[in-house]
Amino acid sequence: MSKMQYRPEIDGIRAIAVLSVVIFHSGLGILKGGFLGVDLFFVISGYLITRILISDLESGTFSIITFYERRIRRIMPALFVMLALSFIAAWYLMSPIHMEGLSRSMVAVATFTSNILFWQESGYFDTASELRPLLHTWSLAVEEQFYIFFPLFLMIAWRFGRKVTLSLLVLAFVISLALAQWGIENKPVAAFYLMPTRAWELLVGAFAAFAALHMEKRQIVPALLVRNLLSGIGLAAVGTSILLFDSKTAIPSFPALLPTIGTALLILFATQGTMVNRLLRIKILVGIGLISYSAYLFHQPLLAFARYRSLHELSSTVSIFLCVSTFLWAYLSWRYIEQPFRNRKLIVRKVVFPLGAAATAMLIVSGVWNIRNDGANANNDTKIASASTYDACHFHHQAIKLSMDYCKASLDYDKYYVLIGDSHAMVYFVELKKTLADEGYGLIAFTKDTLYPIAGTYREGMPDNESRMAFLDSAYDFVTHDAHVEGVFIAARWAAHIEGGAFQRPDGLMDDHPFSHTRIAQRADADTTQQSDLLTYSANFLAKVAQKRPVTLFGPVPEVGVDVPRALLLDQSLLNYPVAWYDNREKNVLELFRMARDESPNISVVNVRDVFCKNAAGVCIQEQNGQSLYLDDDHLSLTGAKLVMSRITKQLEEKHKLSQAEPGRTMTKVSKSQGS
After folding, report:
1. What confidence tens digit (pLDDT) does each residue in 445-491 have?
2. Strand residues in 293-345 grouped as ranges (E)
3. Inter-helix orientation angle 257-269/199-217, to 10°
4. DSSP secondary structure of 581-618
5. What does 404-455 look like in DSSP terms, one character per residue?
6. CA spacing 20 to 30 A to 351: which of 104, 252, 493, 584?
7. CA–CA distance, 323 with 21 (Å, rounded to integer)
8. Residue 629 in 3-state DSSP?
9. HSE (CB half, 13 Å, CA atoms) of 355?
10. SS in 3 state form for 46-77?
């Protein structure tokens, strides 16, 4: 079989893919479906790799060593240079907490497991995607994981013939696509990042390779009219997807068939003589396609570091400049890194594997060292490094089906407290568990990202409201009926739930966490729940729980509206804002607490306001002695959580004294300043 001939039009398709991705990530808002460029790359990769493998198998020249040598030459040099440059840039540009995150990413990228890392880290605490320099490497990890198994599968299946091989691939395609569809409905983040739910897109390219080779072998050349029609349909499918799809489109499920099959049609039928072929062979498109891999590698770090160093949105001028810079970096990388390493005379086989292994080891060692040193870098003197630990029973937003069985099985005390709430509750877990252990109590947490901790309510637009409501019903049933439960702590980002929106500062800055309105489920007019009704309902619910067990509410943590570690590094004048901002934001929350305490004397409040906002300067603090009290713009760091724990300790000590004086008394006496 003849060797695969170079087809400039495929580089034209690559150009469409990489331009779509770069423009999408630039934030210019032009191509809302630009993220589909990755899906196009998957199809192209599946096509090219499968053609090479089948050609080698049919000619009897297949070698697994040769295959991986090609992959190393193609993927690793430019990737490792990008990683090294990103590490150096992060050393000078990032705070230690974010430097540590980049180091974790770097280790994962070097081992082609970054998609798994980003899936696991994809929670409410997660650094915003546009600030993560290495987030885009998830797609490379998917490809490399696929190519661990695919060549071995072909090598074995080929012995049983082409039909058996194709049948097995069709079965794998159906399973992968079905899994993707199920995943989008049940575990959407896992479905987006993981290889099993993305494999079908690479297999679309593989099927295109089988079809192309079959047509070449049988000398089947469709009529020009047919090729024009099918390639035109392919281009329309790709273009329509990129222009009309958006972040709400369920990818990689059934809708992704449109751009992926469209790409396959382009590969198969945009051949010489067609109008689409002439379009894709435009020199500038072919040139961009040639450097598309390096452009993909460098675009995200450039954009992410620029955004990191600005606490405001990038202007259109800056975004365009960064996009142009991406392709300048890409050309240099292609010319001086990619090309030399693909030259077998310049870089011989015997040094390829040792060089790859050495570079991998160096990156892993550097990343692990930095992680163990808490993100040590040029900005270490700002003392920004902080960390928070999740309990095993904290459910991220991608966990749609929730089970409490494991959480209940983790009890190891005769008496324990229960922590219920969202990620603002979870930040207290580590320190609260220590504090309670000193008093002889255990702690169990039932928390989920963005969960309003009042049973019988739901948030508009959430895909898992039924399971959230069932989860809360089960949690409170456990609290009120298990004899070992001593009391319940409840914490949340109260104002965001009650107000139905993020914190917007009077100076115009605001965080970018989307929040929808909270509604009462059983009301006939649930979709138009009034705020006053929500407050009354919530207060009454808390009072009912308090009839069974003491309830301790954590007062609202001051929201900041700007990432605190970055502000410490870039502009500290944005921190420590007036107390009036806090009081205005939290007025309805404080009213809820007042109403709840009026309903039941068995409800206490941890006065968080006085921890952060009671000072002579009349400001709410977000740092102390240069140490960040926050992980981001609204979640406390361990340092911040420890300050709040001093309040809990006082209440526990007071309870202990009361129980000694009057057996049977519970912790009900509280500070009256918050919520009054």
Report:
1. 888 888 899 999 988 877 778 888 888 888 899 899 988 899 999 99
2. none
3. 20
4. HHHHHTHHHHHHHHHHHHH-TTEEEE-HHHHHH-STT-
5. -HHHHHT--SSSEEEEEESHHHHTTHHHHHHHHHHTT-EEEEEEETT--SST
6. 104
7. 11
8. coil
9. 14
10. HHHHHHHHHHHHHHCCCCHHHHHHHHHHHHHH
Give 243-277 pLDDT, tens digit per residue.
999 988 989 999 999 999 999 999 999 999 999 99
Phi, psi of 462 (to 5 degrees): -80, 135
Strands 577-578 and 603-606, bridge-based pairing:
unpaired
Beta-carbon contacts of 24 under 8 Å, excluding residues fewer than 6 positions away, are 31, 32, 33, 34, 35, 37
Cα–Cα dist 494/509, whole Å: 20
Which residues, other chains included, contact 623 with Cβ-Cβ below 8 Å and sequence gap of 6+? Answer: 564, 568, 572, 575, 576, 629
316, containing H or E segment: helix 316-333
Angle, helices 257-269 vs 37-59, to 10°: value is: 50
For 564, other C-beta atoms within 10 Å of its C-beta total 28
**Phi then psi dihedrals of residue 504, to 5 deg:** -110, 115
Those residues whose C-beta lies under 8 Å from the C-beta of residue 446, and which sit 6 or more positions away, are 393, 404, 407, 418, 419, 420, 471, 475, 478
**First-to-final CA distance of the chain:** 83
233 contacts 261 by C-beta, under 8 angstroms: no
What digits encode the pLDDT tens for the residues 23-48? 999 989 889 999 999 999 999 999 99
CA 459 to CA 240: how far, in whole Å?
Answer: 32
- Place 377 in a pLDDT band, splitting at 50, 70 and 90: confident
Which of 226-240, 402-416, 529-543 bottoms out in mean pLDDT, i.e. has the lowest? 402-416
User: pLDDT > 70: what percent of the chain?
Assistant: 89
Q: Contact, 489 vs 418, CB < 8 A?
A: yes
Task: Give the burial string for 195-216 (b: 16+ CB within 10 Å, else e).
Answer: bbbbbbbbbbbbbbbbebbeee
Nearest to 38 by CA among 285, 244, 203, 242: 242
